[in-house]
Amino acid sequence: MAAPGENMRVNADRLWDCLMEMAKIGPGIAGGNNRQTLTDADAAGRRLFQSWCEAAGLTMGVDTMGNMFMTRPGTDPDALPVYIGSHLDTQPTGGKYDGVLGVLAGLEVVRSLNDLNIKTKHPIVVTNWTNEEGARFAPAMLASGVFAGVLTQDYAYGRKDMDGKSFGEELARIGWVGDETVGARKMHAYFEYHIEQGPILEAEDKQIGVVTHCQGLWWLEFTLTGREAHTGSTPMTMRVNAGLAMARIMEMVQTVAMENQPGCVGGVGQVKFSPNSRNVLPGTVVFTVDIRSPDQGKLDAMRARIETEAADICSALGVGCAVEAVGHFDPVTFDPTLVASVRKAAEELGYSHMNLISGAGHDACWTAKVAPSTMIMCPCVGGLSHNEAEEISKEWASAGCDVLLRAVVETAEIAG
Ligand code: HGY
Ligand code: MN
Ligand code: MN
Question: What is the best residue among 93, 97, 131, 132 to mutate for testing ligand 1's pocket, by most ligand atoms within 8 Å of CB?
Answer without folding.
Answer: 132
